[in-house]
């Protein structure tokens, strides 16, 4: 069983899953650096859990470099990187180019930029762990949200590539892929909220518990909703049947939206 990490960085830590991850890590004695664009909420969290706050944009090349540098200065070495920051922007084919560009930067390129800075050092020392907070949308899809679906697929695909390329060099890569989680993102999902909560909307603390357990093994997929494994298998082996089922769900959503008083 892998040794417990001594240090960790969590991006997108001011709220939701990131806040729960940082809190759980700190409670287990891990020295934590937290990052988010919301400097005020981040500083408050850091004070509460004894973490070191580095506010800023972890998605940009400059922000990623600044965060990695500050984390190394504070921690000495980074055992685990939780690339947790993510955005859900734009709906349907009407999503703007700006929404697509923002999601690509935050949901995909943030991982690429962090990995460029982290992996060579991990290879040199023979160990390190990169944990991506993706989504079940990155294994399946999210109706109504092509931007989120495509970029979360990209996040999972990049994590797969990292694992395939570097696992023999001691680099462990994992992807956390929950469905509905009780966060502001779920609250904003409108008619999708019922669908995302079909297998129960978990608390961020529950997702953090699963993530902590995953640090004790090296399995790639971390599925807080175990049902996702079956959906993922069906998508791969019965693709047209799976797509037909998803289209039926889409039709149900459209019916809900057309009903008087429905959200959306």
Describe this structure in words.
By secondary structure, the protein is α/β, with parallel strands linked by helices. 53% of the residues lie in helices and 11% in strands. A seven-stranded parallel sheet has the order 3-2-1-4-5-6-7, sandwiched between helices. β2 (31-35), α2 and β3 form a beta-alpha-beta unit. The radius of gyration is 18 Å and the shape is globular. The N and C termini lie far apart (47 Å). The model has no long low-confidence stretch (mean pLDDT 91).
CATH superfamily: NAD(P)-binding Rossmann-like Domain
Mean pLDDT: 91
Largest sheet: 7 strands, parallel
Strand content: 5-15%
Count of helical regions: 10
Category from helices, strands and their pairing: alpha/beta
Number of distinct beta strands: 7
The strand line-up of the biggest sheet is 3-2-1-4-5-6-7
Tell me the Rg in angstroms: 18 Å
At the fold tier of CATH, the topology name is Rossmann fold
| Contiguous uncertain segments of 5+ residues | none
What is the count of distinct domains? 1
Assigned CATH architecture? 3-Layer(aba) Sandwich
Q: What form results from the Cα inertia axes?
A: globular
Report helical residue fraction: 40-55%
What is the structure about, briefly put?
The protein is an alpha/beta fold and 264 residues long. The protein is 53% helix and 11% strand. It has one domain (7-227): NAD(P)-binding Rossmann-like Domain (Rossmann fold, 3-Layer(aba) Sandwich), CATH 3.40.50.720.
């Amino acid at each position: 069983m892998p040794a417990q990490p001594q240090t960790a960085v969590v991006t997108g830590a001011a709220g939701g899953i990131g806040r729960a991850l940082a809190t759980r890590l700190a409670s287990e004695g891990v020295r934590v650096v937290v990052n988010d664009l919301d400097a005020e909420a981040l500083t408050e969290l850091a004070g509460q859990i004894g973490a070191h706050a580095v506010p800023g944009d972890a998605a940009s090349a400059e922000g990623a470099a600044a965060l990695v540098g500050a984390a190394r200065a504070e921690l000495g070495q980074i055992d685990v990187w939780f690339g947790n920051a993510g955005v859900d922007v734009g709906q349907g084919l009407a999503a703007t180019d700006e929404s697509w560009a923002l999601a690509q930067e935050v949901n995909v390129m943030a991982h690429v930029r962090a990995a460029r800075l982290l992996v060579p050092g991990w290879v040199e020392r023979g160990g390190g762990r990169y944990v991506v907070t993706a989504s079940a949308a990155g294994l399946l899809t999210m109706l109504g949200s092509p931007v989120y679906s495509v970029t979360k697929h990209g996040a999972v695909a990049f994590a797969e590539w990292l694992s395939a390329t570097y696992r023999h060099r001691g680099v462990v890569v994992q992807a956390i892929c929950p469905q509905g989680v009780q966060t502001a993102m779920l609250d904003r999902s409108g008619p999708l909220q019922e669908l995302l909560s079909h297998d129960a909307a978990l608390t961020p603390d529950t997702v953090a518990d699963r993530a902590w357990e995953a640090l004790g093994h090296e399995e790639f997929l971390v599925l807080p909703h175990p049902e996702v494994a079956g959906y993922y298998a069906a998508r791969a082996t019965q693709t047209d049947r799976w797509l037909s089922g998803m289209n039926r769900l889409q039709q149900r959503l459209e019916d809900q939206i057309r009903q008087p008083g429905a959200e959306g």
